[in-house]
Automatic annotation (TrEMBL):
<feature type="transmembrane region" description="Helical">
    <location>
        <begin position="168"/>
        <end position="188"/>
    </location>
</feature>
<dbReference type="GO" id="GO:0005886">
    <property type="term" value="C:plasma membrane"/>
</dbReference>
<feature type="transmembrane region" description="Helical">
    <location>
        <begin position="277"/>
        <end position="296"/>
    </location>
</feature>
<feature type="transmembrane region" description="Helical">
    <location>
        <begin position="238"/>
        <end position="256"/>
    </location>
</feature>
<dbReference type="InterPro" id="IPR011701">
    <property type="entry name" value="MFS"/>
</dbReference>
<keyword id="KW-1133">Transmembrane helix</keyword>
<dbReference type="GO" id="GO:0022857">
    <property type="term" value="F:transmembrane transporter activity"/>
</dbReference>
<feature type="transmembrane region" description="Helical">
    <location>
        <begin position="366"/>
        <end position="385"/>
    </location>
</feature>
<feature type="transmembrane region" description="Helical">
    <location>
        <begin position="46"/>
        <end position="70"/>
    </location>
</feature>
<keyword id="KW-0812">Transmembrane</keyword>
<feature type="region of interest" description="Disordered">
    <location>
        <begin position="390"/>
        <end position="409"/>
    </location>
</feature>
<protein>
    <submittedName>
        <fullName>MFS transporter</fullName>
    </submittedName>
</protein>
<dbReference type="InterPro" id="IPR036259">
    <property type="entry name" value="MFS_trans_sf"/>
</dbReference>
<feature type="transmembrane region" description="Helical">
    <location>
        <begin position="302"/>
        <end position="325"/>
    </location>
</feature>
<dbReference type="InterPro" id="IPR020846">
    <property type="entry name" value="MFS_dom"/>
</dbReference>
<feature type="transmembrane region" description="Helical">
    <location>
        <begin position="102"/>
        <end position="120"/>
    </location>
</feature>
<feature type="transmembrane region" description="Helical">
    <location>
        <begin position="209"/>
        <end position="226"/>
    </location>
</feature>
Length: 409
């Protein structure tokens, strides 16, 4: 590796981590201000649940729109544009004069999140392939670390008496600043790439790839049921069920993301030492135990501790799913990852929608008991994470060039 190539690779990794951090901060800004936004706009818990569902559906659509944009302009340009859009929509939520404007802003925020998802995961898969070792968890650690910072910022500003429009404005400014620091870094093609580009119909993965994708998709779905249940509603759970103040309620989200930061910081090393199968099994069992503790917590400090343990358990599942799926089609990871995102958003939809509905009827504890049971089932799916060779190109069909070569702006 020459110094220039090494510098570009390091810069690409740093820029990708920055976008993960920006997205984590934006998501945390929305999640930790749910009770305050409800109060400001006079929304019921059911109405807020409906907004969360609309946001999730929009994110699914944004993922496929982002796929088309990545193919045309490359992931770096799409990442920056989508993060700036997310920052703008946070401002729209902050200063929305009424419910209709706020609903529109939430939908646009969802579209931006979907575009960020497919573009940043495409870039991350490419960077990991250039490194030649597991590094994807470090990107998700940046996402979680930013979520911790954002949750603490919400808690701190709320304690100072800041109204929610000013709190969200502060978050939007930080997200925009992160986006403006991202720079393009061209990466050399990997040894397996060639300069020939196949026809568009050859870029579509075959049925075998989709069959191999399903187990990872199921794990991702359950992981996001857990994640959305804790992330989207832990603040409301602490405030409504456990009697925490608006300043203390975001601490469960901060604790959950602290757990994910800790878990993801060591996940790549653990994968290299004991393998992904063992990591997935241990993570699933820990998440199940922690969610059970969250469901039976007698007061909000206990819930904060349980949320931290839940984050530690679920931490490695998403990056391992993304890494495994990206290896199924190294020449076109954006295509596979856009389809994988469907499971992501179904998980968010089920988790946020079901837990929000249960919470609206005063049954938040059941909302945490259900994903605890689902997490146990992931032990059975762990065996699919044994490394396998990617699908070879069709006979007589030229291989698509490495995405770092064609996707760098």
């Amino acid at each position: 590796m020459t110094p220039s190539v090494g510098g570009s690779l390091t810069g690409a990794r740093r820029g990708t981590a920055t976008v993960f951090a920006a997205q984590g901060m934006a998501v945390a800004a929305v999640s930790t201000t749910v009770p305050a936004v409800e109060g400001r706009l006079g929304l019921s818990s059911l109405a807020m649940t409906a907004l969360t569902i609309a946001l999730t559906l929009a994110a699914g659509a944004g993922s496929f729109a982002g796929l088309a944009a990545v193919r045309r302009w490359g992931p770096v340009a799409v990442m920056r544009a989508a993060v700036l859009t997310a920052a703008a929509t946070l401002l729209s939520v902050a200063w929305a004069p009424g419910r209709a404007t706020a609903a529109t802003a939430y939908v646009l925020f969802g579209l931006a999140l979907g575009a960020i998802d497919v573009s940043v995961n495409t870039r991350a898969a490419t960077v990991e392939r250039h490194y030649g070792r597991s590094i994807l968890s470090s990107f998700y650690a940046a996402w979680s670390a930013a979520g911790v910072a954002a949750a603490l910022l919400t808690a701190g500003l709320s304690r100072l008496g800041w109204p929610v429009p000013y709190v969200l404005t502060a978050h939007a400014a930080l997200v925009a600043l992160l986006a403006l620091t991202v720079r393009p870094h061209a990466l050399a093609p990997t040894p397996s790439s060639s300069s020939a580009r196949p026809a568009p119909h050859d870029e579509v993965p075959g049925r075998r790839v989709w069959a191999r994708l399903v187990p990872f998709g199921v794990v991702l779905l359950v992981a996001y049921v857990v994640d959305s249940t804790v992330s989207a509603w832990s603040t409301a759970y602490l405030h409504q069920t456990l009697g925490a103040s608006l300043a203390a309620a975001p601490l469960a989200y901060a604790a959950y993301q602290t757990g994910t930061v800790t878990g993801r910081a060591g996940a790549d090393l653990m994968v290299r030492r004991v393998g992904p199968v063992a990591v997935v099994r241990a993570a699933a069992l820990l998440a199940a135990v922690a969610l059970t503790g969250l469901a039976v917590a007698p007061s909000w400090p206990y819930a904060v501790v349980a949320a931290c343990c839940a984050g530690l358990g679920v931490a490695a599942l998403t990056p391992l799913c993304v890494a495994a799926a990206g290896r199924l089609r190294p020449g076109a990871p954006e295509t596979v990852l856009a389809r994988l995102n469907v499971f992501n958003y179904v998980g968010v939809l089920v988790g946020a929608g079901a837990s929000g509905g249960l919470g609206a009827t005063g049954h938040f504890r059941i909302a945490y008991a259900i994903p605890a049971a689902l997490a146990v089932t992931l032990v059975l799916a762990a065996r699919f994470f044994r490394p396998t060779a990617p699908e070879p190109p069709h006979a007589g069909t030229p291989r698509r060039p490495d995405t770092a070569h064609v996707l760098s702006p």
